[in-house]
Each structure stands twice: as C-alpha cells, then as structure tokens.
Design a protein that fits this description.
By secondary structure, this protein is of the alpha/beta class. The chain is built from 17 helices and 18 strands. It has helices spanning about 20-30, 50, 60, 65-70, 90-95, 125-135, 160-165, 170-175, 180-190, 210-215, 235-240, 245-260, 370, 380-395, 410-420, 425-440, 455-460, and strands at about 10-15, 35-40, 75-80, 100-105, 110, 125, 150-155, 195-200, 220-225, 270-275, 275-285, 290-300, 305-320, 320-325, 330, 345-350, 350-355, 360-365. The strands form four sheets. It has a seven-stranded mixed β-sheet, sandwiched between helices. A six-stranded parallel β-sheet has the order 6-14-7-8-10-9. Strand 16 and strand 17 (about 350-355) form a beta hairpin. Helix 16 (about 425-440) packs across helix 17 (about 455-460). The chain is globular. The chain starts with 8 loop residues before the first strand and ends with a helix. The structure holds flavin-adenine dinucleotide and NADP nicotinamide-adenine-dinucleotide phosphate (NAP). NADP nicotinamide-adenine-dinucleotide phosphate binds near residues 155, 157, 159, 201 and 212.
Length: about 450
C-alpha cells in the first residue's frame, strides 16, 4: 500500500490558494502516512485570493501566508507554478501519475445580473476591479475610467464593502499598501465623490461582517449615509435576527441604525447605503449614464428564507460606473464533473461525484470555493480542506486508491516542461517575493507587485 517512505502517497493539488495550501498541509502532516504533494498553480505566484483578492488596505489578513510558508518547508512539498491544469497538463494525465488529485482552483469567474445595459462601458464586475487593483496579471490591461462622480456597487457582501472602500481611499492611505501603481494613480485621481451600495434585501439580511461594516463608518475621506426609513425593520426581519445564531445580522442592524442617526461631518466624499432595491437596467449612450432600480419588499419564502419581491416602483440613479458584486463562480476543467448551475464541482464531503452515474469517482477530490461555492473566509477553507483530506486518507486505508501508472516525480515534471518550459518552483516564487518586498521597502510599502507574467518569470530565475 502507498503511504510509506519507499512508496509515498502521491497527490496533485490543483490551486495554491488557502484551500490548496490547507489540503497540502493536512496531507504532509498526516500521522503514519508519508505523502508527497505537487501543488499546481496557473500563476507563477501562490496564495490565490490572499494575494489577488484580499483588499490591500488589510495587510494583517495577508499574514496568513506564514502558515502556508511552513507547509512549503515540509518534506514532500513541491510547487509547480505557472502550470494551468486543463491546458498544460490534463486531468487524465494527472490521474495516471498520482494516487489522488484534489481540485482547489477556486471560483475565478464573475456572475452576471442578466439585465439590459450590463455590458456597457463603465459597467464592471467587482471581480475585475479587485483583480486589477491587486495586480493579477490577467487583468492589467483593463482600462478603468474613474472620472464619473457617482459609482454604484450592487450587492451587500464583503466584496462590495472592499470595492466601495477602495474607491474612496485617499492617496496617502493607498500609498502605504501593495495596490498597483496604476490603480493608486487612477483611484487617487478619480472623480468619484459618491459611492452608492445597493442591496436587494434589507439591513437584516446583508452579508457584511461587523468589522467590515464598522470600518465603513471610519473612513478618512467619506461620510457614510443611511436613510433612517430604510433601517426600520419589517416584521419578518425583526423576528429573523432574534436567535442566538443571528448575532452578526443583529449587530449589522445596530451599526446601520447608528449610521442612520449620524449627521454627515462634511467629508469630501460619501458612501450611501440603499436597501430593498434591485437593478433592472443600466442605461447610457455608449457608456453607463444611469441605473434603473426597482423597489422591493420582503416576503417569507416557504424554505424559511426571506426573499425580495418587487413592488413595481422604480427609480433611476444617475451614475457613470456600476460594479456588480454579486458573487463568483467556478469554471470547468475538461474531464472533471462540473455543476454548471452552481459553478462548482459536485461532491460528497469533498469526494467528487459523477452526476450521470451518481457515484463517487475514486481518487478525485475537491476543496475550497470550487467545492462549496464562493462563500466563507480564509479560515473556512481549513476545516473544509481537512474534511477532504480525511476522505483521501480513509480511501487510502480502505484500498480504494489505484496505483498510478507512472508515479515518478521526475516523469511528471518532464511532461509538464514539454508544454510549459517556464515552470516556477517554490524557490522561484521566493525570489519573486524577495524582489517585490525589496522594491517596496524604501517606499514604506509591504511590496511592489510584479503585474506581468514575464516580469515574474524573469525575477523567479534570479
Ligand atoms: P482561491 O483563493 O481563489 O485559490 C484558487 C487558486 O487556484 C488560485 O491561486 C488560482 O490561480 C488557481 N487556479 C485556478 N485555476 C487553475 C487551474 N486550472 N490550474 C492551476 N491553478 C489554478 N477572506 C478573509 O478571511 N478575509 C478577507 O479579507 C477576504 N477578502 C476577500 C476579498 C475578495 C475580493 C474575495 C473574492 C474573497 C475574500 N476573502 C477573504 C475570501 C477568501 O479569499 C476565500 O475564502 C479563499 O481565497 C478561497 O480559497 P480557495 O483556495 O478555494 O480559492
Ligand atoms: P456574498 O457575501 O455572498 O455577497 C453577495 C451579495 O450579492 C449578497 O448581498 C447577495 O444578496 C447579492 N446578490 C446576489 N445576486 C444578486 C442579484 N442578482 N442582484 C442583486 N444582488 C445580488 O459574496 P461576496 O461579497 O462576493 O464575498 C464572498 C465571500 O468572501 C464571503 O464569504 C465574504 O465574507 C468573503 N470575504 C470576506 C472579506 C473579509 O473578511 N474582509 C472580504 C471580502 C470577501 P442576497 O443575500 O439577497 O442573495
């Protein structure tokens, strides 16, 4: 049986975000099993959304990477950066070379609202804006014209908070972060004076977490504005926040009630929070000029969820920018089962399920956002990855993992290099990391990120 020093359990983990790193850490720390893990990422840089999603003005959150660095220092770890699974190596080829494959490649695509005018210039996915200001190499050619006076952010989650906050941060605060230079320049020089955050349901249903909502009330350059009439709860909402498990929602309502009672103190910018409104169309002649919203009321759905129901009443808000921040979705990898409706890989507690046969596919697993959908903070992926790895180890112990046709680590590297000569090993990433930090140091910034693959590759070779 595999899992011994002579015949280690060979696992490919696809995606080096939190889920991929936690899965790798659990495997390499497993008692009585010797594992060897190849961690693939399509980028030369690891850490997924910790690098390319978490807001640059939240540097403490990014220090979670110290845990991942410890995992990378363990025996049996190998990073294969700049290798896209599905392009540079197929699912079938991985299956032939590993006892198990764990997909942890996240949810990188955005969701659409499905409304008229959504594709007008000036209408963006939050995904694009976030990846652009964070230096993700795929998004650096986007041309954000931030000259509009009013921007509208659709959605009531923490990503909406990040986008709204970043849009009004002053230059001095941006300059101390690892926001890209292009984004610092564009945001600091932007014409945006007002950001309107629009939620389709009420304050008691908002998905914000309390610290993020509180932070919005402490911005240097922007007053936060909430209409007192919009924080008055209907009876469904009032009842829904009573339970012990509803502390986050209850506190959100308290914080928002506090905002509604505040007088603006004359800061140069405003963040306005509107509730019970859904976007129905974006209008404009060649670019975004306004957004049409329909007013909603709340009703109790049969499933216990409180839903937004249109009242038919409409209003139009002039604006030059719209950011839809309504969630992410995964993309399929050829040969791996995929649930297109949810944008995830179908699974039972991390074991991939073939939906046509309704059975578990031996040796194939999933962790993180592409397993459970795009929700949860970084730490959520730790428990999630642990559940998956426990099933890998159970399947090993029960003899359910087939021996790979070719388990030679050199063989798979040679195969990948035929298609992608610029594979970045972990020491290549460490060279990139050191160069970025060195560039940031004299400027008092945590790092200055490379934003182009070629720059990253050149730096990885030093
Ligand atoms: P990801 O982090 O997305 O990692 C997926 C990895 O897979 C990426 O590195 C990607 O390059 C790689 N990949 C994709 N396709 C392939 C492929 N075909 N082959 C090889 N590699 C591939 N949580 C917090 O706790 N605090 C925060 O402040 C916070 N801020 C956030 C801000 C934003 C904008 C977003 C979107 C999320 C934020 N989160 C935050 C949530 C947190 O980032 C997620 O819970 C977490 O990153 C999900 O981990 P994951 O590993 O599943 O996916
Ligand atoms: P989210 O928390 O799921 O929020 C999505 C929002 O979009 C919800 O308010 C949802 O409203 C709304 N929405 C969905 N479809 C809509 C539609 N068609 N029209 C209008 N509104 C729509 O997702 P997220 O903000 O992308 O965040 C993803 C995860 O990352 C979350 O778990 C979040 O906490 C985490 N994250 C954490 C931090 C942090 O800790 N600082 C920062 C960023 C992200 P309904 O509720 O009505 O569906």
């Amino acid at each position: 049986m595999a899992g011994t020093p002579d015949n280690p359990l060979r696992v490919a983990v696809v995606g080096s975000g939190p889920a991929g790193f936690y899965a790798t850490g659990h495997l390499l720390a497993a008692k009585d099993v010797t594992a060897s893990v190849d961690l693939y990422d399509r980028l030369p840089t690891p850490f997924g959304l910790v690098r390319a999603g978490v807001a640059p003005d939240h540097p403490k959150i990014k220090s979670v990477t110290k845990v991942y660095e410890k995992t990378a220092a363990r025996d049996g770890f190998r990073f294969l950066g700049n290798v896209e699974v599905g392009r540079d190596i197929t699912h079938a080829e991985l299956k032939e070379r590993y006892h198990a494959v764990i997909y942890a490649y996240g949810c990188e695509r955005d969701r659409h609202m499905g409304i008229e005018g959504e594709d007008l210039p000036g209408s963006w996915a939050a995904t694009e804006f976030v990846a652009w200001y964070n230096g993700h190499p795929d998004y650096q050619d986007l041309d954000f014209d931030l000259s509009a006076k009013r921007a509208v952010v659709i959605g009531n989650g923490n990503v909406a908070m990040d986008v709204a906050r970043m849009l009004v941060l002053p230059r001095e605060e941006l300059e101390g972060t690892d926001t890209t230079d292009a984004a610092i320049e564009a945001i600091a020089e932007s014409g945006v004076e007002e950001v309107v955050i629009v939620g389709r349901r009420g304050p008691a249903q908002a998905a914000f977490t309390n610290p993020e909502l509180r932070e919005l009330g402490e911005l240097t350059d922007a007053d936060v504005i909430v209409d007192p009439a919009e924080v008055e709860l209907d009876r469904h909402s009032a009842r829904s926040i009573e339970g012990d498990g509803e502390i986050t929602h209850r506190r959100n309502v308290e914080i928002l009630t506090g905002y509604a009672g505040r007088e603006p103190v004359g800061k140069p910018k405003r963040v306005v929070m509107r509730f019970l409104r859904s976007p129905v169309a974006i209008h404009g002649d060649g670019k975004v000029e306004s957004i049409e919203l329909v007013h909603n009321e709340l009703e109790h759905g049969g499933d216990g969820r409180i839903r937004a129901q249109s009242t038919g009443e409409r209003e139009t808000l002039e604006c030059g920018l719209v950011f839809r921040s309504i969630g992410y979705r995964g993309a399929p990898v050829e040969g791996v089962p995929f649930d297109d409706w949810h944008g995830t890989i179908p699974n039972q507690e991390g074991r991939i399920v073939d939906p046509s046969a309704q059975n578990v596919v031996p040796g194939e697993y999933v962790a993180g956002w592409v397993k459970r959908g795009p929700s949860g903070v970084i730490g959520t992926n730790k428990r999630d990855a642990q559940e998956t790895v426990e099933h890998v180890l159970d399947d090993l112990a029960e003899g359910r993992l087939a021996d790979p046709r070719d388990a030679d680590p050199d063989g798979v590297l040679a195969l990948v290099r035929e298609r992608q000569p610029d594979v970045v090993a972990y020491d290549g990433w460490e060279a990139i990391d050191a160069a970025e930090k060195a560039a940031g140091e004299p400027l008092g910034r945590p790092r200055v990120k490379f934003t182009r693959i070629e720059e990253m590759l050149a730096s990885s070779r030093t």
